[in-house]
Known about the structure:
With about 210 residues, this protein is mainly α. It contains nine helices and no strands. Helix 4 packs antiparallel against helix 5.
Amino acid sequence: MALKINPADIEAMGLQAAKSKATQDQIINAVIGLIKEEGFSAASSSRIAKRAGVTWGAVQHHFGGKEEILEEVLQRSHLKFHEALSASRFTTGTAERRVAKYVDAAWFHYQGDEYMATMEILLATRGNGKASSDLSISRSRKAHLALARRIFHDSEASDRIFQEVIYTVHCMLTGLLIEIALEPQSFEPKPYLKRLKAQVSSMLYG
């Protein structure tokens, strides 16, 4: 006998899923906001719940605990970066133009609240749990490599060179963020971004 499903039940399930997603987003945004404004130490269990407008029990229901919330922040930042650079526009144009788009998009992501929170989390939890290891740059190596190879599909560079490109971009952009934090009024990143693009082009295309 076929199971009959009430359309109203399907609609209710959809609404519940949407409500659950909205609550999860509130919690994640609360964590990111606290870290952005006051640093990692501000993201305590009580303050996360208060800022999200829910009880800590509700937070645990959706994520399990603080470690899982932090890991979700890292996951979302990684996915946001990957999805942004997976757009077809990054695979078209001259090599020089693709390098420029790649660096500019990476720089835009690095300046975002999610990435800033990610860096704070990784620094504060290094060596102490899953959040500091599961989604580190080294653990995301295959995904980053596949993405770079898709964008620079006409490069004959080896995987080792591609990895060097990925780390070069990461280290340079992270360094620029630090300089901006130290000298927000006087530091100008544009010349360094231009040099980074030239370096990436040279590494990939000679």
